[in-house]
Inverse folding.
């Protein structure tokens, strides 16, 4: 809804006054909005990079080459590498069941799927401590088999999976509901099997929503802090993901190193945003449907 | 309140949507702006409203120059094609809105506002629905609320932009009749825009036919239909046939024979003949007429429509009563237009003139 | 063969030619149960194992009450700030053109994409007494970092996209004709905005507020660096849960978590009710 460009006659100014604000009001509003964004979004972001490079690029690179940091990066990649595909498969299955069929209890199911979204990350970690901790039912049993959940990688994976559980499903469900079942029915009527229909008809239809969901899921998986903090035990070099490593370095007053790792994560965030925007620009119609959530 | 528009011109960028339009609208008149899309009719309406500003020209409400006034100051009532009701207000609040936003000095007391709004709802036959929200109403009901809302401010002029365009055919017909009744009861000067000529001819006191930003003709529905002054109006209103003919010594020739029509005092040369399908009389004989072979015959309502092939020209359609159609020779029909007009370069150069009876009817309006 | 009317039988689902229902629902329910339901019911089971009186006692412990008050109070204030500025930001993004608009629009999603710990240390550095903003405010006697004000700042960051993204689509659909109608009826610009446009945004604004509030209550990573974490002053409930866990005081941790879960659930319900109510009254699109 852009402003018209009109002639400079006085009558045009009268008409513009009917359905748009005065230039003065507009400017004030823009200044306020931009000020808000700069203060709360841009300044913090800039701070990350500025602090990381405060002692010069050499220090920055050294911090990244530290072996503990390196293993933190690896761990983050591993955890995300397990959590995201798992939730991807789940998301597709859930969206297929919910979008293509009518059954009782659909709304309830959708609410349950949304549950991790509305739960505090610390509580998300707590539930696993209660389940697998020292004085829980399952913990000691698993311990006796030599299976360590908490304070080890499996715990991290579980907590991350919990927290990023709804992301892909939330993107796909409204998208597939919009698309309806007619394409699949057409394919079936032409003789395709269920799997063929899924691969050749459904997947291409949802690919942008899928990518979008995976992007968000991945960003959250790599950046999760609260839940992972609870289950990890903070064992350096073994159960520290990148966000946890940031915390440790910061609490040791090792600011440059902390911000260096943070800068990597911030870069990841920026890449996520750029990809997200690019996806939105190119495939706005399909993605707009999923925004209705 | 009379409305006068003088030499109005509106450009959007380089594109002239209206070019030198002047029009006088009488107080209390119900006038239609009729034309195809792109003719400038909606632009003209919005200029009168103050929702657009003219590139050149002036607009008068009564004796006052309204061109300098903002839309808020003009005290008009505007009804949009898609109703534009305030979704988050009840029907009553919608209707009362214009009164509530008046500055304190001009605002009636709260009880009075409510009474006026309820009276209007009764006028538009929606009593009892004042607590509903627009989402809970049908399309026809919404449009009636929109009209009541526009009338609440006792406007100088009521402006309706294709008010029935978004409704089904049946609702449209009902609301048309109803709008005329409301207009007769309230007496507001009303301008409405439509591309539906049936609607314009049925409803309006006068019709303004527009094409490509200019006025083609202004007149009563009878005048517009029976005595169109340009090929555009002839072709746009009602059905018409159009034949390329030649004038020779005042005699009209089609292809290689005279057709029994004369246009005295006109120069020789080519021209275009217009006549309506139902303004024809059948001729026995071979000369002084138009003749052709019947290629199609359809029953439409109470008449028969025959499509005739006259030779090289595109086929012509004539309308006959079913009895005349069946009694004539099915293969070949000879006829002559009883009412017709001749145009040359867009100018009328000849034609039948209104009969004395028709003139009498025209004066009545 | 007798024909039996299908409407008399209770059906779990409508028959359909599309295959894979069993598989898809099976995978969904299995994964849902393993990852979400079992853990959450573990929490519920544990906290019910405390017994009512113990539960109430733990919940009403002064330090707990304080932590909950701080968490909910700061989240509320931050959500209000986000509501006001979020509406302004959405308005400016939808209706005006200015250089860099696309970039700003994309940046609104930064809090979704940026890890909370990164935001936490960045905000702390900014608002600490020797930080860029902190050093400007220090001479005025205003302290942000290590006080509840710092918590509010962090929660404003975290909740920023919620109001903007909920309100934006509604604003984009505002019919220009509705504004013109208000103008033809004599309303000036301020009246049009305050009486016609803003009320239309109320349901979306409320939803965005509730989402930002819910998110703020549970937030941990971006808050603990800037908060100072002084018990009874700037200690948030999630932090208290962790402290109790480290003390192996599982009952207390469980109790606090249950209370927070209950309150979040109520928030979810409120959000859904707002949306259902507005859809019934105003039709879709609100």
């Amino acid at each position: 809804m852009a402003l018209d460009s009109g002639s400079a006659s006085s009558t045009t100014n009268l008409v513009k006054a009917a359905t748009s604000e005065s230039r003065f009001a507009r400017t004030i509003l823009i200044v306020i909005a931009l000020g808000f964004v700069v203060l709360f979004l841009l300044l913090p972001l800039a701070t990350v990079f500025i602090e990381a490079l405060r002692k010069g690029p050499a220090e920055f690179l050294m911090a990244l080459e530290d072996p503990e940091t390196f293993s933190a990066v690896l761990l983050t990649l591993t955890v995300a590498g397990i959590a995201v595909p798992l939730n991807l498969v789940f998301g597709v299955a859930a969206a297929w069941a919910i979008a293509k069929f009518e059954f009782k209890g659909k709304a309830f199911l959708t609410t349950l799927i949304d549950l991790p979204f509305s739960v505090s990350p610390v509580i998300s970690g707590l539930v696993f401590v209660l389940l697998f901790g020292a004085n829980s039912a399952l913990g000691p049993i698993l311990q006796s088999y030599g299976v360590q959940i908490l304070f080890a990688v499996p715990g991290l994976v579980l907590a991350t999976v919990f927290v990023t559980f709804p992301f892909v499903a939330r993107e796909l469900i409204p998208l597939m509901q919009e698309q309806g079942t007619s394409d699949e029915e057409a394919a079936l009527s032409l003789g395709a099997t269920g799997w063929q229909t899924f691969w050749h008809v459904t997947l291409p239809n949802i690919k942008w929503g899928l990518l979008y969901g995976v992007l968000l899921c991945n960003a959250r998986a790599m950046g999760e802090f609260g839940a992972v903090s609870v289950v990890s035990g903070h064992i350096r070099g073994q159960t520290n993901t990148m966000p946890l490593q940031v915390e440790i370095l910061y609490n040791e007053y090792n600011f440059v190193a902390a911000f260096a790792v943070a800068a990597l994560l911030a870069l990841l965030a920026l890449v996520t945003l750029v990809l997200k925007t690019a996806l939105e620009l190119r495939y706005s119609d399909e993605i707009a449907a999923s925004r209705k959530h | 309140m009379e409305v006068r528009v003088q030499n109005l011109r509106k450009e959007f960028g380089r594109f002239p949507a209206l070019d030198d339009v002047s029009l006088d609208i009488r107080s209390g008149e119900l006038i239609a702006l009729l034309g195809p899309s792109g003719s400038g009719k909606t632009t003209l309406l919005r200029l009168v409203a103050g929702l657009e500003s003219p590139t050149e020209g002036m607009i008068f409400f009564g004796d006052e120059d309204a061109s300098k006034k903002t839309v808020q100051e003009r005290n008009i009532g505007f009804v949009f094609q898609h109703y534009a009701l305030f979704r988050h207000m009840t029907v009553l609040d919608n209707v009362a809105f214009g009164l509530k936003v008046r500055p304190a000095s001009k605002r009636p007391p709260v009880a009075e506002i409510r009474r006026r709004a309820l009276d209007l709802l009764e006028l538009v036959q929606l009593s009892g629905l004042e607590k509903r929200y627009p989402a809970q109403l049908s399309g026809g009901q919404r449009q009636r609320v929109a009209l009541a809302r526009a009338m609440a401010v006792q406007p100088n002029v009521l402006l309706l932009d294709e008010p029935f365009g978004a409704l089904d055919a049946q609702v449209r017909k009902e609301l048309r009749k109803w709008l005329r009744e409301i207009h007769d009861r309230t007496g507001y000067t009303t301008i409405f825009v439509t591309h539906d000529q049936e609607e314009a001819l049925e409803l309006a006191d006068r019709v303004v036919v527009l094409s490509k930003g200019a006025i083609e003709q202004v007149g009563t529905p009878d005048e517009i239909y029976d005595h169109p002054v340009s090929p555009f109006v002839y072709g746009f209103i009602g059905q018409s046939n159009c034949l390329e003919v030649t004038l020779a010594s005042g005699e009209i020739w089609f292809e290689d024979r005279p057709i029994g029509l004369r246009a005295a005092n006109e120069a020789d040369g080519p021209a275009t003949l217009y006549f309506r399908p139902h303004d024809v009389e059948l001729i026995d004989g071979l000369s002084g007429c138009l003749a052709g072979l019947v290629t199609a015959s359809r029953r439409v309502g109470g008449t028969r429509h025959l499509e005739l092939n006259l030779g090289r020209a595109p086929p012509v359609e004539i309308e006959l009563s079913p009895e005349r159609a069946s009694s004539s020779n099915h293969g070949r029909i000879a006829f002559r237009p009883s009412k017709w007009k001749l145009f040359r370069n867009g100018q009328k150069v000849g034609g039948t003139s209104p009969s004395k009876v028709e003139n009498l009817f025209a004066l009545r309006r | 063969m007798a024909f039996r009317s299908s409407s008399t039988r209770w059906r779990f689902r409508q028959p359909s030619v599309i295959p894979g229902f069993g598989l898809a629902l099976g995978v969904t329910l299995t994964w849902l149960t393993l990852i979400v339901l079992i853990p959450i019911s573990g929490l519920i089971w544990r906290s019910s194992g405390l017994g009512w009186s113990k539960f109430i006692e733990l919940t009403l412990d002064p330090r707990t009450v304080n932590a909950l008050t701080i968490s909910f109070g700061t989240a509320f204030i931050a959500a209000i700030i986000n509501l006001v500025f979020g509406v302004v930001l959405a308005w400016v993004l939808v209706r005006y053109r200015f250089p860099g608009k696309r970039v700003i629009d994309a940046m609104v999603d930064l809090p979704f994409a940026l890890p909370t710990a990164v935001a936490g240390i960045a905000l702390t550095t900014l608002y600490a007494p020797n930080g860029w903003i902190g050093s400007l405010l220090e001479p005025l006697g205003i302290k942000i970092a290590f006080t509840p004000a710092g918590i509010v700042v962090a929660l404003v960051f975290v909740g920023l996209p919620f109001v903007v993204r909920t309100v934006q689509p509604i604003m984009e659909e505002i019919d220009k004709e509705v504004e013109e109608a208000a103008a033809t009826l004599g309303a000036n610009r301020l009246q049009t905005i305050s009486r016609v446009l803003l009320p239309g945004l109320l349901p979306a604004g409320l939803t965005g507020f509730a989402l930002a509030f819910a998110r703020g209550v549970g937030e941990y990573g971006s808050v603990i660096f800037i908060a100072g974490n002084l018990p009874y002053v700037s200690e948030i409930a999630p932090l208290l849960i962790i402290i109790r866990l480290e003390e192996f005081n599982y009952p207390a941790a469980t109790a606090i978590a249950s209370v927070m879960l209950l309150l979040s659930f109520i928030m979810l319900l409120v959000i859904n009710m707002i949306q259902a109510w507005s859809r019934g009254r105003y039709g879709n699109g609100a």
